[in-house]
Request: fold
Amino acid sequence: MSETEVFGEKSSDTFDVVIVGAGFAGLYMLYRMRELGFSSRVFEAGSGVGGTWYWNRYPGARCDVNSMEYSYQFSDDLQQEWEWTERFPTQPEILRYADHVADRFDLRRDIQFNTRVTAASFNDEAGVWIITTDDGAEVSSKFCITAMGCLSEPNFPKFRNIDAFDGPIYHTGRWPHEEVDFTGQRVAVIGTGSSGIQAIPVIAEQAEHLYVFQRTASYSIPARNAPLDPEFVRETKANYAEVRKRVRQTVQGMLTRFNPASALEVTPEERQREYESRWVLGGFGFMAAFADLLSDERANDTAAEFVRGKIRETVKDPDVAEALLPRNIIGAKRLCIDTDYYATFNRPNVTLVDVNDSPIERMTRDGIVTKGEEYRVDSIVFATGFDAITGALLKVDIRGRGGVKLRDKWIKGPRAYLGLATTDFPNLFMITGPGSPSVLSNVIVSIEQHVDWIGECLQYMRNHGATRIEPRQTAEDDWITHVNEVADASLRSKVGSWYDGANIPGKARIFMPYIGGLPEYAEKCADIAAHGYEGFVLS
Ligand code: N01
Reply:
């Protein structure tokens, strides 16, 4: 008997594994399943691979993690042959990489594109998942693995009268495939998170006039993007295994120069020098300037004040500078990384509209109204973020044992063991699910760790004649308690954000990602596996 037949009969609509999504998680999961001899089918709503990098094609989109680290490590041939060109790769370059991976490993033949999974239901008697797609088809599989991404379900705020607007409305997370040309247009961008902050400087160069609607000012650190130094690339490739190992040992899965000192124990001059050197270097390393920036509010405020000082220095109009000053805890909401964001507000064709005190009231045929003032525009860009972490999962009607709905189980917030699996939903695995490091890490590192763990688990089950796996209630409860405890200890959980559902009206508030760091998390997962999948029931 071939390995693929162990779990089930083969037919065109019966698989060992169905994978939902062909982004970086889905592609690698498929690769791994094939390697282990499990029959698999991937369903992908888009017409191509790449997930986030397929949908987020907005002007200025690029990754905030260094390219040499934001890439797969499972194949040395792949990492040796692929040539990144910039420190922070652009969206088109990352999409080319995803396409290359799909072609190189011949993955497309098991991916069904333009097909959205609408429902997944566990048939307890037969012990299979029935997966329904938007073309009305059904397939069955022993395992269902979601690879839908944490930031894939766009948030469209329900502004009054939105349909009245006569021009095009775009969302950064659903950008058209055709080129959008804003030349000669008055454009509104709503939202100043990471997406808005990347798009605004680029749109400002094209548009006749740009109105930026800001509700909460964000902290942003310069990217200092640059072409990659060939010598750095050569050295990294020569030592890739060692570099990847070091990356996996960092809390966030990326190499930064961590300073173990307290921001409060050094002199003001030393502190300033440290922040200045990090500002010049650019990128996420800014928050590694001192060890207590996310645990002590007074320490945090020294970093926040440094960035506020930079904004005051950069923005010439003092009133505009004042309105751009972020006031909350730096690094609590996801830090933004920019190219010329603050300087963009010195351009004569850019107007900052502060909608904190006077929210957007409604749309009209010609534009946006706040506090009785109408801003007449030709196009509107929503950079309003995502229903993060659970949004895409709960859009699918997932039903477990006895018909229990995931939407009902998670009504007060998501509950999952290790962010990988959830009680009452046997044989369902979630890649970068809630309660795992996911969005608090270099997500490709987290994806690979999850995929490898799931692959080993399925292999273990096959070798031990087990066909069903599900977390014990107590294990899930204990894990959630731990996730909450570590979140409570960090300043990150003190500010409402998409990390805890605060950005979506009515969404349950719970800090969703695991903040304890990648090494501790990966060790815990490995330990559980080494002890016969402790906390899971296998049958
Ligand atoms: O979304 P966001 P994003 N009226 O939620 C505003 C990743 N990412 O797409 O803060 C007016 O951060 C909202 O205001 P407020 C990254 O992890 C990565 O920018 O809620 N404004 C906020 O300003 C990132 O964190 C990369 O008050 C409204 C903005 O819209 C995550 O994706 C690039 C509003 C939303 O900001 C999400 O970033 C881009 C309303 N009704 C994104 N509703 C890279 O790695 C919302 N807003 C490069």
User: Anything to note?
Assistant: The chain has 15 helices and 20 strands. The pocket of 3-acetylpyridine adenine dinucleotide is lined by residues 62-64, 151, 157, 172, 190-196, 198, 213, 215-216, 334, 355, 360, 383-386, 439, 498, 503 (CB under 6 Å).
